[in-house]
Design brief:
867 residues, alpha+beta, Immunoglobulin-like, Jelly Rolls, 11-stranded mixed beta sheet, 15 helices, 29% strand, globular, hydrolase, alpha-L-rhamnosidase, hydrolase activity
Length: 867
């Protein structure tokens, strides 16, 4: 038993004197730096250790808890762990607030100073904690009506000691108390598998309430719940009635608590928002006050809230993360006024205007210009337009609330005397912490990497969407599975992706089928597509690899296993997946504009390779979780699946059926060979195909994340660089040369003559091909995780002479890892910074053996020999 209570407090004394050789930083609970409203009674704890000494090692940690009533306790554990350590105290109860601090002991018996305290407050952990009701207007707020404003009051007999608001909705909600907005998040409560998992959010509203009457208002938009999704006219995917559930709990100095919130006493009126939709935009009449005064008040109905499906968030919300000033005003050949923000982004346009009451202002959004005019064709049916009717107040601020757009350009009409200073873009996205950076000696590659970052920022908007502008914006599984390693390097996506995986499990069919989009609004009867549905295995492994969280594998294991067993039933005894419709190597550049699935790669080869990959992931996962029987079963199944692939699709000399870049990339990276002759032959054939293509990319969604790795692994790193640096279409740098500021969906989304690709799948903000950034991080800069959570890393930069320098930084769970190299006059100089808890194996170019280093800063040099 670890010591607890007084003995633990006595043992974990602060360092008595001198400068501490290490310190504990960044305590967090689960995936949260701000642990307010956590949804578990036993949140796991993590922290970083900053040590000035390479020899310093911890062997114990002490956790101290302070409760709201002033009592304290401590626990000492003999362990050097610092990630996701189990909660050692009594489980939290709903609403409980505590402060936890950490110190660790070195092997010589000296404790560090105590970390800063982490405040942790539990949300509502039990369905019975909810006493208020989900309400909806009785008569107004139909599908074509104005957004409803629902309102009630809270009368306080005394000043509050503290107050909390717990909030969710059918739709999206903007809540105010006494005219002041609650929180700074957007589109609350977010998009989940609503029928099974409805997120709620917790807010500290102590400063917003006061003694006496308090005005409570909830403005409700359609959002994902009732707005258009998937195709034109498809609305009410989850229900035809908007609703809100708000529970305001006020605590007083005498220890009592009163609960206010939504119930049958509330009323509803139409708001100034006459229309709102994510695809089509928003229409607002600013002459209409958003208040009940002077309006006929509708009653509300209490609906079934099904409190058992309410969940707390595991990651941050959507917020305004940046404001960009417009960079230029343009007049189109047809005489229209267009604002250029200089960056393709996701968010809102904010205008300051002065005009007569009743005047109309329109803002239409698009990502590109086509022959000088707004390029709206890629929007398909999405109107992407915000309209305002002015109230005549000088300097009115026009900004939407319940829509978002993907755009670089905005066409404005009805705006008198427009000046640049009056136009801004508010950037929206899930408020993820940036954790990864890359830079090289080639500014084109740096722009490519920045484009990947911007596409992540825009499309990681509550769920990982494919695109932000047209009538789609869905959580496609295939896009995410290829991009997950890149995303986990660039941003702290642990909570974000874990929440999405929870929805994947909830939406999975009883037979293990995995929908193509999560949350599932396509509602296919029998979803099973290689590379898309395989997100069920690939994404959990990517999250575990990046963050070292074994529990994500434990939570997802039944889902992973169900998917593999589903395909096991499809492939039958020959273990070849050669039946059923497939997306294949989606958007292969040779595919016709309106048939993205017509790729060079044989879909049976793609599907069978993915089956082998998922089985291998499941085998490793079972072993990690200590499930010995499953581990052995799936390891054997992987061997047989690989053998079936090789026997059917790979010739003795290494040629792979359908003989294109993608099938060789799949085979080489997956090592789907049984002889060195096959490996060598496949590598040679891939090199021939790449050279014959003029070093242009000939892969779609499946092959693109693997092609440069395959060339490097096959012994052709110089060809990988030639492909990376090629500017003619199709290539990564073609879009950069055309002025792209995000990653395109098609290699040729914009044709060289300035016209837009005629295909229906034409987005200018689509992160899938940005998966190349993973190769930039791991191979070009040379920073690759070799064990979960970056506890060990391989530093092995791929130096060919094509670049003269490259660097990468990553804020791992243990702290910042940074590597940078420069090539100058035949010598490679490398610098490396490693945090406490991480060990690096370093291979300098040409070295046969690695040097192993730990915490600290290191320098290496070697002579360079041209590859």
């Amino acid at each position: 038993m670890p010591p607890t209570g007084e003995s633990a407090l006595a043992e974990a004394n602060p360092r008595p004197s001198g400068v501490p050789s290490a310190r504990v930083t960044r305590p967090r609970a689960e995936y949260l730096d701000d642990a307010f409203g956590v949804g578990t009674a036993k949140p796991r704890l993590s922290w970083r250790i900053e040590s000035a000494s390479a020899e310093w090692r911890s062997d114990r940690y002490s956790l101290r808890i302070e409760r709201d009533d002033g009592t304290t306790d401590a626990v000492v554990v003999d362990s050097d762990e610092q990630l996701y350590v189990p909660w050692p105290f009594a489980p939290l109860v709903s609403r409980e607030r505590v402060w936890v601090s950490v110190r660790v002991r070195s092997g010589d018996g000296v404790w560090t100073n105590e970390s800063e305290s982490l405040a942790i407050e539990a949300g509502l952990l039990e369905p019975g904690d909810w006493v208020k009701k989900l309400i909806s207007p009785t008569s107004i707020a139909g599908l074509n009506d104005a957004a409803p404003l629902m309102f009630g009051s809270a009368d306080l007999d005394a000043p509050p000691a503290s107050a909390r608001l717990y909030l969710t909705a059918h739709g999206i909600v903007e809540f105010t108390i006494n005219g002041r907005q609650v929180g700074d998040d957007v589109f609350a409560p977010g998009w989940t598998a609503y029928e099974k998992r409805l997120r709620y959010r917790s807010y500290d509203v102590t400063s917003l309430v006061h003694k006496g009457a308090n005005d409570l208002r909830a403005l409700i938009g359609n959002g994902w719940y009732r707005g258009q999704l998937v195709w034109p006219g498809n609305r009410s995917s989850y229900g035809d009635r908007l609703g809100v559930l708000a529970q305001l709990e006020v605590n007083f100095a005498d220890g009592t608590r009163k609960v206010f919130g939504t119930d049958a006493s509330w009323g509803a009126v139409p708001s100034s928002i006459l229309f709102d939709d994510f695809y089509d935009g928003q229409r607002r009449d600013l002459r209409i006050a958003d208040s009940p005064e002077g309006k006929v008040v509708d009653t509300v109905d209490e609906l079934d809230g099904d409190f058992a499906r309410l969940i707390a968030p595991s990651g941050p919300p959507v917020r305004v993360t940046e404001t960009l000033q417009a960079v230029q005003l343009l007049t189109t050949p047809s005489g229209k006024t267009i604002v250029d923000f200089g960056q393709n982004l996701v968010g809102w346009v904010r205008l300051r205007v002065s005009g007569e009451a009743g005047a109309r202002v329109s803002v239409r959004h698009a990502e590109v210009l086509e022959h000088g005019e707004l390029g709206i064709r890629p929007l398909r049916s999405a109107l992407a337009t915000c309209e305002y009717i002015l109230n005549g107040t000088p300097g009115e601020v026009l900004q939407p609330t319940f829509t978002f757009n993907g755009f670089r350009y905005a066409e404005l009409s009805g705006v008198p005397e427009l000046v640049l200073a009056d136009v801004e873009a508010l950037v929206l996205g899930t408020d993820l912490v940036r954790t990864g950076w890359f830079e090289s000696s080639d500014p084109r590659v740096n722009r490519l990497h920045e484009n990947v970052v911007w596409s992540t920022r825009g499309n990681f908007l509550d769920v990982p969407t494919d695109c932000p502008q047209r009538d789609e914006r869905l959580g496609w599984t295939g896009d995410l599975q290829v991009f997950a390693p890149t995303a986990t390097f660039l941003f702290d996506t642990a909570g974000f992706l874990s929440g999405w995986l929870g929805d994947l499990s909830a939406e999975q069919k009883p037979d293990g089928g995995v929908p193509y989009v999560i949350p599932d609004v396509l509602r296919e009867a029998d979803p099973a597509a290689a590379a898309w549905s395989d997100a069920a295995t690939i994404v959990p492994e990517a999250v575990h690899s990046a963050y070292g969280d074994v529990d994500v594998l434990r939570r997802q294991y039944s889902s992973m296993r169900a998917w593999v067993e589903k395909v096991r039933g499809i492939v039958g005894p020959d273990l070849l997946w050669n039946t059923g419709a497939q997306f294949g190597d989606w958007l292969d550049p040779t595919a016709p504009p309106d048939d993205a699935s017509r790729a060079q790669a044989d879909p049976d080869v793609v599907a069978t390779a993915y089956f082998a990959r998922s089985v291998g992931i499941l085998a490793r996962t079972a072993a990690t979780l200590g499930l010995r029987a499953d581990g052995e079963d799936y390891a054997q199944l992987e061997k047989r699946a690989r053998a079936a692939f090789i026997a059917t699709y790979v010739s003795d000399d290494g040629h792979v059926r359908s003989d294109c870049q993608t099938v060789y990339a799949l085979s080489i990276v997956g090592d789907l060979f049984e002889s060195e002759r096959q490996r060598t032959g496949a590598g040679q054939r891939l090199a021939e195909l790449v050279t014959a293509a003029g070093f242009r990319v000939s892969t779609g969604f499946v092959g693109t994340p693997l092609i440069l790795d395959a060339l490097s692994m096959a012994g052709y790193p110089e060809l990988a660089y030639r492909m990376l640096l090629e500017e003619s279409c199709p290539s990564w740098l073609y879009a950069v040369s055309m002025g792209a500021t995000t990653v395109w969906e098609r290699w040729d989304s914009m044709l060289s003559d300035g016209s837009i690709n005629p295909g229906s799948m034409t987005s200018f903000n689509h992160y899938a091909y940005g998966a190349v950034a993973d190769w930039l991080h791991r191979s070009v800069a040379g920073l690759a995780p070799s064990s979960p959570g970056y506890q060990t890393v391989d530093v092995r930069p791929l130096v060919t002479g094509d670049l003269s320098s490259a660097s990468a930084r990553h804020l791992s769970p243990y702290g910042e890892i940074a590597v940078g190299w420069k090539l100058d006059q035949g010598q490679v100089d490398l610098t490396l910074t490693i945090p406490y808890g991480v060990t690096a194996r370093v291979w300098m170019p040409g070295a046969a053996d690695a040097e192993i280093v730990g915490n600290g800063s290191h320098r290496f040099s070697s002579l360079f020999q041209q590859v």
